[in-house]
Design a protein that fits this description.
Blueprint lengths: L7 H9 L1 H7 L13 E4 L15 E4 L12 E5 L2 E7 L1 H4 L4 E7 L7 E2 L17 E7 L7 E8 L9 E5 L11 E8 L4 E7 L7 E9 L7 E2 L10 E5 L9 E9 L4 E3 L3 E3 L11 E7 L4 E7 L6 E9 L7 E2 L9 E5 L8 E10 L11 E4 L10 E8 L3 E7 L6 E10 L8 E7 L4 E4 L6 E11 L11 E5 L10 E7 L3 E6 L13 E9 L5 E7 L4 E5 L5 E11 L11 E5 L1
Antiparallel strand pairs: 1-2, 3-4, 4-7, 5-6, 5-8, 8-9, 10-11, 11-14, 12-13, 12-15, 15-16, 15-17, 18-19, 19-22, 20-21, 20-23, 23-24, 25-26, 26-29, 27-28, 27-30, 30-31, 32-33, 33-36, 34-35, 34-37, 37-38
Helix pairs in contact: 1-2
Length: about 575
Amino acid sequence: MMTDNLHGFALTIADRSPLAAEILGLRYVDHNVKAGETYVYSIETKRLKSNLPPVDIRVINEFEPLLAPEGFSILKRDDAVNLRWLSNSNLTKYGSYIVERQNPGDTIFHVLTDPPLVFIKEPSIKQPYYHFIDSLHGNKGVFRYRVKGSNAFGEWSEYAYGLGYSMDRTPPEPVSLYSGDYQKDSNQIRLAWTIPINNVDIKYHQVQVSENEEYNYSAVSAQLPASDTVFNFNVKDMFIDRPFYFKIISVDSFGNQSTSIVRYVSVPDLEKPLPPTNLKVTIDTTGQILATWSPSKSHDVEGYYIFYSNDDESDFTMDDNTLQKDTFYTWNIPLNTLTKNIYLAIKAADDNYNRSNFSDIIKLRRPDKIPPPKPFLSQAFYDEESGVNLSWKQSSASDVEKYFVYRKNIKDSLSTWKLIDSTSKDVIEYNDNQYPYDTQVGYSIRASDDFSNISEFSNSIPVNIPFPKKKYLVSFQKIESSKNMNVNLTWTKPDANNMDKRATFKYQIFRSVGNDELELYKEVPSGETNLKDKVELKNVLYNYAIRIKFENGKTGKLSQAKSILIQ
């Protein structure tokens, strides 16, 4: 930005030095002012002619102290401190800075930056902070620092304060981890180490463990005192079929740490592996069983044993003493048995002969080829609002799982029973609203057991289904009178979803005068939805109704009559 500006460097220097601004003619201090008054300033040049009107700068003569540089903080380093403060928020406020330090036990701040610090910010480089490094050269103790900024008017801000001190970054000498033994009686691993003689600044030790020698270590002890040389690690409730790698971290008072050499400890595997999951079992009509499962998640599993029981879920017997290496198993069971079900479960075995708990226990129905007795259909009747309602008595078999509902058109000699729906074993009622119209329909029920055996058809009950006149109801949308004794009738077309697209029909208009009965008055083609009726009598009611009439002679329900008084 400075290189694109002809006077860029002059403006930059003037912004950071009141003296430079005076020399370049870019600064003016008005001393002849009075407190509380407002002054208007205009800055112009003699030679530059601008098309823009000069900008008035209004200044209220009130003193406002400059705030301290924002974001001041101190970072500790080895034999040094790093003083920093925000660059973006201070860039437009201050052009230079002075850093001062107060030594331990002193009462005076000493200037560290003479001349003041001036920073040039390069836009292409991200620089969130201004930095100043103060080397302490081994000086101990806490130092007090402060920093202030100066603006283009030569005014100095308030101080920003902070404390700093140097830190020791040299790690201590690591301990020597010479012993690691598993103690079976207490389920503990005992670790022992020695401390180097030169380690006088140790703050604490900490024991870490991992399954891998190179990485993923985590702490398993609290911060142990510097004098401790023994730690007992309890593995009672842990998965111990894994490697144990230990190391000791030593930390001094400045946070520097060192790491001992890694030591491996072997723990015998006495834990059961995890059982297999997702056990699925099928059986065919011949009694052949196929069992599949997902492998155990334990990494040391060698195979699986298959168990079964005929009576309950506890008295299991191993089907084959051979360890199964695969995750599936087939065998045949006898069908001539009094027990209805068979129970199956799987155990995993690891390389130390430990067996897992049982997997999920699967209850399997033995093959059954005998269909259940047929149910009894007790009633079937038609209701104009709800349709055909059925109810039946349950089959006497205890293993019924569902009922199938069948329907056929009795008047059609070629019609056969058609399955229309099914219900669960506890539901013995059904409502059919998808029946054919204007015919006689028969209904029957069949039962199905848990082995998909289906009973014979129940008794059949015929139901007469009338033509659904209400379904084709048409009503007047508007009836109004006009000049010359005319009545204009307008009606809506029937719902297209209820109509057979191939059906041919017309509209029948009924009319009466006064209290007379409605009589067929006119027939209108299906393509029209309005009629102009010429009437003859005044001061009487004319009553109108409408319905659909199909080509086969069937008619829809007659609409409600609407009346109009002719005046």
